[in-house]
Amino acid sequence: MSVVVIGAGLGGLRTAEALRRHGCPDPITMVGAESHAPYDRPPLTKAVLRGTVDDTTLPADLAELGVDLRTGRRATGLDTARRRVRLDDGTELGYESLVLATGAVPRTLPAFAGLDGVHVVRTIDDALRLRTAVERSRRLVVVGGGFVGCEVAASARLLGAEVDLVEVLPAPLARVLGPIGSQLVTDLLVEQGVHVRGNTGVAEVTGDGAVAGLRLQDGTELATTEVVLGLGVVPDLDWLAGSGVETGDGIVCDAVGRTTAPDVWAVGDAAAWHHPLAGRRVRLEHWTNVVDQAAVVGRAVATGEADEPADVPYFWSDVFDTKIQALGFVDPADDVHVASPGGRTVLVYSRSGRLTALVGFSAARHVMRLRSAVADRAPVEEVLALLAA
Ligand SMILES: Cc1cc2nc3c(=O)[nH]c(=O)nc-3n(C[C@H](O)[C@H](O)[C@H](O)COP(=O)(O)OP(=O)(O)OC[C@H]3O[C@@H](n4cnc5c(N)ncnc54)[C@H](O)[C@@H]3O)c2cc1C
Predict the structure, then answer these.
(1) Whose CA is nearest to atom 27 of ligand 1?
(2) Cβ atoms 232, 120 nearer than 8 A
(3) 389 against 240, higher pLDDT
(4) Domains in the chain and their CATH numbers?
(5) At 243, is the secondary structure helix, strand, or coil?
(6) Comparing C-alpha atoms, which of 107, 125, 118 is closest to residue 33?
(7) pLDDT tens digit string along 94-141?
(8) Which residues form the Reductase C-terminal domain (predicted)?
(9) How big is the CA angle at 237 (ends 144 and 110), to the nearest 5 degrees?
(10) For an engineered disulfide with 344, which of 69, 235, 332, 363 has Cβ 3.0 to 4.6 Å away?
């Protein structure tokens, strides 16, 4: 048997490790479009951008694992009938099992196309380039107030830059956390001097060959030579067209990572697994989710046995010194209650009186012990009483 893993990021590496852990004796070939060995992305907008870390390579001995890593190579076509993957150098790889772990790529805006000074942050190269640019210019405009945008704004501020954050919704993270959570994050940013500009978007980009400034829809003019687009990510799956691997918002998978093609599996940001707690397919972009899914798929391919992964999604984000941690499916349309255990803030989300999610602000101790309450959809009054005790 031979296993081919497409994508040499967190999901690809963790899958290879799980394959070996579960006794897979067969050759594993891992193909990665980047020139780097697998590395970690969460530090890119945190320690790397703040200048305290330059290298986030994930600790792993690929030779010891018996993984043939092909970096700087992209998969460009898949023939599931012949069980072959085509690479961008024209070569083909045969497989008996194939794991797709290709992540996602940042969205951009046509108005910024081809201009110098426009950044996204998905790769270590992006992060190092942005850090150099911000250290030089001491000025940054972040367009888009999702987690990446907020973390970039905070880290650039810590580098001493003057930072504007532009968000088309009323405030950063409004779409993710709802108004109460997004106000808390806005306060964190504003207290540290980030100029948060909500309810407005980019009307015009000025500059010839390089960004010189932005005019916002509310008429504000912002001079800057450096802009970060934090507009979310989408999986790049065009190369799978016609292969029999069904895609939509991500690669369509069952609850253990099987795609619609035989012996083809998918994990991580690229994959939309059926999620038992949600009762539908969801594509998550969380570090822990990738690790959990890779463990399931590695074992399934190695042994033929598969268990559904942990049922409560978890993610974290660092904005300045505040660690935001979320358990469950956070839906801004749910009821939101504010609890203050031990002087920390925990947002408690509920629907029809049942707990759906928790978001803590530097409140790890209070949030993490309630994982089973989220899984069981505990009565929200009980959860609020626990947090008040
Ligand atoms: C800046 C940043 C900060 C983050 N912070 C947090 C955080 O604080 N908390 C949290 O929970 N999560 C965070 N995440 C999310 C987390 O890092 C991702 O969920 C995780 O990296 C996804 O792993 P993956 O293996 O699915 O994809 P990736 O890590 O993106 O790896 C996919 C790899 O596949 C390669 N590839 C793509 N297409 C092909 C192809 N056709 N052929 C070959 N190779 C290909 C890509 O180049 C890439 O190297 C962050 C992500 C980013 C970018």
Answers:
(1) 103
(2) no
(3) 240
(4) 3-104+235-303 (3.50.50.60), 107-229 (3.50.50.60), 321-388 (3.30.390.30)
(5) coil
(6) 125
(7) 999 999 999 999 999 999 999 999 999 999 999 999 999 999 999 999
(8) 314-382
(9) 40
(10) 363
